[in-house]
Automatic annotation (TrEMBL):
It comes from Acinetobacter lwoffii. This is ISAs1 family transposase. InterPro entries: Transposase_11-like.
């Protein structure tokens, strides 16, 4: 509903951070994993496939 965007977006952000933290394909820090997922679609699909969300 209206007015809950910040709370909903923070929940989505926590889910994304948990998925990237549990990723073992690319050994790097969280910031590098976030940047790589933003730039490389193949890495993004492998992360989502590994988490069971795709």
């Amino acid at each position: 509903r209206r007015g809950n965007a910040a709370e909903l977006f923070s929940g989505i952000r926590h889910i994304a951070i948990n998925i990237l933290t549990n990723d073992k394909v690319f050994k790097a820090g969280l910031r590098r994993k976030m940047r790589k997922a933003a730039m490389d679609r193949n890495y993004l699909t492998s992360v989502l496939a590994g988490s069971g969300l795709s």
